[in-house]
Amino acid sequence: MARLKLAVLVSGSGTNLQALIDACKEPGFPAEIVQVVSNRPGVTALERAAGAGIPTDVINHKAFTTRVAFDAAIHAVLEASGADLVCLAGFMRLFTDGFVERWRDRMINIHPSLLPAFPGRHTHKRALDAGVRFTGCTVHYVRPEMDTGPIIVQAALPVHPDDTVERLRERVLSAEHRSYPLAVRLIAEGRVRVIDERAVIDDALVPGAAMLNPRER
Ligand code: GRF
After folding, report:
1. Is the shortest distance between the CB of 15 and ligand 1 below 6 Å?
2. Contacts of the segment 58-67: beta carbons below 8 A, 24+ positions apart
3. What distance in angstroms lies between residue 38's CA and the mean position of ligand 1's atoms?
4. Is residue 181 lining ligand 1, measured as CB closer than 6 Å?
5. Taking the model in full, what pTM does it have?
6. Which domains are assigned to the chain?
């Protein structure tokens, strides 16, 4: 079966991109990365892509006077790449509504919290300040409003009493690296359908028991 073609949009270190690169190397993984686009030149994510032999493009937002023009440039590269699915992986620009609609149900994002809690930035600090017992990450289809859209995969992890922003970020990030390839796999296998703005997954394996934090004795 033909593999799903991915374009990955990045702005920084690209550890999620790396997780997708690694997943795509596994035999039988149903997707391949055909294009990486960064809005910032010189970022590590671009090195990761080049190292894996993936075509890269830099579309520097600073070179554009309007967001519409920037989005049009990104759109042109994505179209030319033949991508079926766009994966935002630490991409730090907001798209115009028109762009988002053009890629409706064909563009996904990963966010380092259990959405709809803590959309936006500084998620780990806000989770710690709120004293939540669990946090995690979310892979979701992109909608015009930031960090909203049908949820495909979430990973939940307990917050430890001695957690710092840095420790939490590290643990959430490693959960991200498992969640993003899982979401891509499910989509590529044709198992995800958006119905009434919720992502329904056929034959999903669901964990059984509740996890309590703190633990019961
Ligand atoms: C991740 O935490 C991602 O969820 C967020 O930005 C970070 C990007 O990390 N949107 P990386 O560039 O994939 O290493």
Report:
1. yes
2. 61/93, 67/94, 67/95, 67/96
3. 13
4. no
5. 0.97
6. 4-201 (3.40.50.170)
